[in-house]
């Protein structure tokens, strides 16, 4: 009987590792973001929504970003995602 050494990672593990890396990068970006200079002084804090990083924005602003690489790899296509900074709650919402 022959034994083979297989080197690789299950696709699910790659997906989770990429998400963890993206979340760490997002956390760093959000900590370094300076939102005190918006025109109205009102802003929504940035968030990690478990799949994408949304940087803080001024109230009323709609943000459009490309789907994160992890989703592009999973679905084999590119698309856009949107969030808006809600004036009533000062929170990002879909």
Distance between the termini: 56 Å
Main beta sheet: strand number and arrangement? 3 strands, antiparallel
Overall radius of gyration = 18 Å
Mean pLDDT over the residues:
80
Full CATH superfamily name: GPCR, family 2, extracellular hormone receptor domain
| 3D shape | elongated
Strand order within the widest sheet? 5-6-7
CATH C-level class: Few Secondary Structures
* Helix count, DSSP H or I runs of 4 or more residues: 2
CATH topology: Hormone receptor fold
CATH architecture: Irregular
- Which blocks of ≥5 consecutive residues have pLDDT under 50? none
Helix content: 25-40%
Give the structural class: alpha+beta
How much β-strand is present in the residues?
15-25%
Tally of domains: 1
Number of strands: 7
Order of helices and strands: HEEEEEHEE
Structure description:
With 94 residues, the chain is of the alpha+beta class. The chain has one domain (11-93): Irregular (Hormone receptor fold). It is built from 2 helices and 7 strands. The chain has helices spanning 11-32, 69-75; strands spanning 43-44, 47-48, 53-54, 57-58, 62-66, 80-85, 92-93. The strands form 3 sheets. It has a 3-stranded antiparallel β-sheet with strand order 5-6-7, with no helix packed on it. Strands 1-4 form a two-stranded antiparallel ribbon. The termini are far apart.
Give the SSE map.
Layout: H1 11-32, E1 43-44, E2 47-48, E3 53-54, E4 57-58, E5 62-66, H2 69-75, E6 80-85, E7 92-93
Antiparallel strand pairs: 1-4, 2-3, 5-6, 6-7
